[in-house]
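User: I would dearly like some help making sense of a protein record. This is the protein in question:
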Amino acid sequence: MYEREDHDAGFAAGLITGAIVGAGLALLLAPRSGAALRDELEGSWRSLRDTLGQRYRELAQHAGAELDTLQSRLDETASAVESHASNLVDVAAHQARQVWGQRQRDNA
């Protein structure tokens, strides 16, 4: 019983980590403005948060755990992930602007 729960927690952690790495790569490779990309990433984070929330609710019902405790943990985790992702996006956008500015200066 616990083995499945550990697997589910590992899957969620991998999903979140992959989303953060993917968001950083998308920021560096996407030919969009920072504002447009942040809006798109915000929508992705909301979707991810909703998906994780649904998964945790399903697990809570299946295991008989209290949904309020899991929802609270999910909210805390999602807030932390969003905060870290926002910081990552800001740093990556800053670095991309520096690289882009350097390329423009080199081409001038």
